[in-house]
Design goal:
alpha/beta; 315 residues; Rossmann fold; 42% helix; 4-stranded parallel beta sheet; binds norvaline; binds phosphoric acid mono(formamide)ester; 2 domains; 5-stranded parallel beta sheet
């Protein structure tokens, strides 16, 4: 069956754990494959025929769970959902034991976890693909869907100007890794104590030299947003950080995406958010629900990009 017209075989890694697995060329190929899957879903209806995937979620989810379940089934595969919201992985038995058992029954693992090290250990213990469905440090499926959404709307991502304002969190880390691979000019504006992790920034700047990307850090959101083509924010308190909510809602106030901040961006700039959003906190309702917002396109595209990821890992 004809599946893709891509020239370069994009499989370089067994797993998708961070967003840094693929080279610049192969990251671009993944977005091209996503476009083909979105335009021609029936070509990919057999990719996962006879395959079973375990979905393990330690945290709540709407978008990630539904897009993986629908996406996998639309490619002929089957899902086994393991609800770990009440008990963390490694509590009843070791992470390695869970992974070694799962690989006797299923062909791949999609997991949302509190700690990145849990994913790393599962991936190291098994021969089957492990996909990060969000950890404390990374959210690669989200960032890939976000860049696919921008490419769909604006064309080439080379030199595209995107500003992320708010918390230097999991979403920001994967946006940084993939900006470096896709040639994006990414500015990140955070309070000084909430900057993205230095290792992610340093690794990405090395890759950025090859791809002509730019990764810039700011503390002033207004300066960071000036003349950009897209403004992105995420919740100020990620899952797992609820104890800090009160402090965070004070510290992050100047980073709210509102009409004033958006007016500094380029005319026609879009507003992005991975969702779930908190109206009146990181974004005002008029921006989140207004004409500039592409948040539902980002959500929709999660499914296509994840199908491309699975197609790549399982072919
Ligand atoms: N954006 C995202 O990952 O949403 P969920 O937490 O609902 O899966
Ligand atoms: N940074 C957020 C993303 C939710 C999809 C969190 O980790 O809660």
């Amino acid at each position: 069956m004809a599946t893709t017209t891509l020239a370069v075989p994009i499989q370089e890694a067994k797993d998708l754990l961070t967003g840094a697995e693929w080279s610049p060329a192969h990251s671009r190929e993944l977005l091209a494959l996503t476009a083909d899957i979105k335009a021609n879903p029936s070509r990919y209806a057999e990719t996962l025929r006879g395959k079973f995937l375990a979905l393990i979620f330690e945290k709540p989810s709407l978008r990630t769970r539904v897009t993986f379940e629908v996406g996998i089934q639309s490619m002929g595969g089957h899902v086994v959902f393991l609800d770990h919201t009440q008990a963390r992985l490694g509590e009843r038995e070791s992470i390695a034991d869970v992974a070694r058992n799962l690989e006797r029954w299923v062909h791949g693992i999609v997991a949302r976890v509190y700690e990145q090290r849990v994913l790393d250990e599962m991936a190291a213990t098994t021969d089957i693909p492990v996909v990060n469905a969000l950890s404390d440090k990374f959210h690669p499926c989200q960032a890939l869907a976000d860049y696919f959404t921008l490419e769909e709307k604006f064309g080439s991502l080379k030199g595209f100007k995107l500003t992320y304002v708010g918390d230097g969190n999991n979403v920001s880390h994967s946006l940084i890794y993939l900006a470096a691979r896709l040639g994006v000019h990414l500015r990140i504006a955070t309070p000084a104590n909430y900057a993205p992790d230095a290792d992610v920034v340093a690794d990405s700047r090395r890759v950025a030299k090859e791809s002509k990307a730019k990764i810039e850090l700011f503390t002033d959101p207004r300066e960071a947003v000036e003349d950009v083509q897209a403004v992105y924010t995420d919740s100020w308190t990620s899952m797992g950080f609820e104890a800090e909510e009160k402090v965070r809602s004070e510290v992050f106030k100047p980073y709210q995406a509102n009409r004033k901040l958006m007016s500094l961006a380029e005319r026609g700039a879009v507003f992005m958010h991975c969702l779930p959003a908190h109206r009146g906190y990181e974004v005002t309702p008029e921006i989140l629900d207004g004409a500039q917002s592409v948040v539902l396109d980002q959500s929709e595209n999660r499914m296509y990009v994840q199908k491309a990821i699975l197609h790549t890992l399982f072919r």
